[in-house]
Design a protein that fits this description.
Blueprint lengths: L1 E10 L2 E11 L4 E5 L6 H8 L7 E6 L2 E2 L4 H6 L1 E4 L11 H10 L5 H14 L15 H12 L6 E5 L7 H16 L3 E6 L2 H7 L2 E6 L2 E6 L1 H6 L5 E7 L8 H6 L4 E7 L2 E6 L2 H14 L2 E7 L3 H9 L5
The structure holds adenosine-5'-diphosphate and magnesium ion.
């Protein structure tokens, strides 16, 4: 549904998007994961026809967005980061007037506005102004607005940034609902957990470049050699050769011991079991924590930086 080839966007001397390539398949949730300033919004704006590429192409359902802007826009709904709702109008009227811009007839539009308010569970708030809604309600409304024209593709730019965890989870349910309704979703985020939970496939973007790509599981496999086991032992029965014993297990990358706390890095779930069996034979375990790599670790590994 979306294809981007060698896309570049320069702002004067500054290159915001530096030759990216990706494809979004029909019906999937595709994630664009990256820190602030990575080039996510710039890419979305080009897809939505709000900004022109410096070079390269962006295709919506096979059509070049610069050559067929109207045809492409009809297939798209976008939920932008700044929501530009008119503060003089209530939210129902906002939806109505913005829907008119799509050329939907008044009669049909009335039905769609009602359906949008129902979907976002905002029927009771129809007379409120945008700024009177909670953060979570605002995001739901912005997503509902993106769906007014019943587009096949929805672009969501950081749909949960700044929300508390509970409201974020609620918005996630709405995004999953879009997929269940057959929509194709391109979502940007700087939350690893969000990308991990929602997305079928992810491109990790940094400084305008895609530095990794795959399903969440594939991305985490980049660090498959990095399962960490933290074990606390009863200090009275720590065996003498514990370090040597553990190092003799194949698949153990490192062993660090501090008093009765042990950290073991291994490269596979099967090795975790062997490590535990070896320790239990001669020691008493009082606590275990097994840490699997997250997308946060993948970003750190690829860039040497934390995402935020
Ligand atoms: N209109 C603009 N003029 C100049 N620089 C811009 C403009 N829009 C974005 N940029 C720059 O381009 C880079 C990418 O920005 P953006 O696409 O907004 O990143 P993201 O959405 O990933 O946070 C940033 O360095 C930003 O400062
Ligand atoms: Mg942005």
């Amino acid at each position: 549904m979306i294809e981007v080839k060698d896309l570049v966007k320069n702002y004067g001397e500054h290159t915001a998007v530096d030759g990216i390539n990706f494809k979004v398949q029909k019906g999937e949730i595709f994630g664009f994961l990256g820190p602030n300033g990575a080039g996510k919004t710039t890419t979305l704006n080009i897809l939505a026809g709000l900004s022109l590429p410096s070079s390269g192409v962006a295709l919506i359902a096979g059509q070049d967005v610069t050559k067929h802007p109207i045809g492409c826009k009809k297939r798209l709904g976008i939920a932008t980061q700044d929501s530009n709702f008119d503060h003089h109008l209530n939210i129902k009227d906002n939806l109505f007037y913005q829907g008119l811009l799509y050329g939907i007839s008044r009669k049909e539009l009335k039905k769609r506005v009602e359906a949008a308010l129902r979907w976002a569970k905002l029927e009771k708030y129809r007379k409120k102004r945008f700024h009177q809604l909670s953060g979570g309600m605002q995001r739901r409304l912005v997503v509902a607005r993106a769906m007014l024209s019943d587009p096949e593709i929805i672009l969501l730019d950081e749909p949960t940034t700044g929300l508390d965890p509970q409201s974020r989870r609620q918005v996630w349910e709405y995004i999953k609902d879009l997929k269940e309704n057959g929509k194709t979703v391109l979502l940007t985020t700087h939350y690893m957990e969000e990308a991990d939970i929602l997305c079928d496939r992810i491109s990790i973007i940094d400084h305008g470049r895609i530095i990794a790509y795959g399903t969440p599981d594939e991305l985490k496999k980049i660090l498959d050699n990095d399962i960490v086991i933290d074990i606390s032992l009863n200090p009275e029965v720590v065996s003498e050769h514990i370090e040597r014993d553990l190092n003799s297990i194949s698949g153990v990358n490192y062993v660090k011991i501090r008093n009765h706390e042990i950290r073991v890095g291994v490269n596979d779930d099967a090795v975790v079991e062997q490590v535990l069996i070896s320790i239990i034979a001669k020691n008493k375990i009082t606590g275990i924590n097994i840490i699997h790599p997250t997308l946060e670790d993948v970003f750190l590994h690829l860039t040497g930086r934390e995402m935020r």
